[in-house]
Amino acid sequence: MARIFCFLCLLLALRSTAQEDTSNIVTLKANNEGKQYKKILIAGCGQGGAIRHFMENLAPQVITHYQKQGVTCVYEFIGSDQASLKAGLNTAINNHQPDATLMMYQFYEKPDTLKTRSPSRVPKTLLVGSRYQQRRRVKKANGLMDEEVKLVVLEGKNALAVWQGQLNIIDETIRESLYGKLCFLLTEELSRNKINLP
Fold first, then answer.
1. Rounded (5°) CA angle 174-47-91
2. Percentage of residues in the chain having pLDDT higher than 70
3. Which end of the chain is more exposed for a tag (fewer CB within 10 A), N or C?
4. pLDDT tens-place string over residues 128-179
5. Which contacts of 176-179 are long-range, i.e. CB under 8 A and separated by 24 or more positions?
6. Which class is domain 22-192?
7. Could you tell me the pTM of the whole model?
8. Reported confidence tier of residue 83, pLDDT bands at 50, 70, 90
9. How far apart are CA 87 and CA 101, in angstroms?
10. At what angle do helices 49-67 and 176-192 cross, to 10 degrees?
């Protein structure tokens, strides 16, 4: 009987640990003022083909979500070079004339290392902020994803940051339904921050 009790306690402990270690979105800069945008540009930028592929699979899910609410939504990958990020963003904003831009980005100082120091903020050319420890796990043979993607909502032509967050993808199996799940997490977090409430 004692063994069964110990085994059940171990299972409960493992289950609670597993539940905590799931993908999530963390708000780094909250928005408290209601925002209702009619046209949103989703701008993706980052180093490497894998992150671009990820963004180009997530963006259609977000576009579909907002189009159902009557919001015009377009996606553009604005580049992989951090030095020319501001110019690429300005060009995309001028081309699409959005009310707001949802920027997804990921840059590494040394892409081949497992741990690097990297800004926790929108790149220096856009905002100022602190530093943090960024993880990047080598992809496993079984196709698990473990990434951190920065997110920021920029308002108008002046690209004023109204919300900032981080998408933490933790040990997710790469499958089509993953993008729907991440879209739900993102749009729910934006709604909690009073951005395009349905």
1. 115
2. 67
3. N
4. 343 333 444 434 444 666 778 999 999 999 999 999 999 998 866 767 788 8
5. 178/145, 179/57, 179/58, 179/60, 179/61
6. alpha beta
7. 0.73
8. confident
9. 14
10. 60
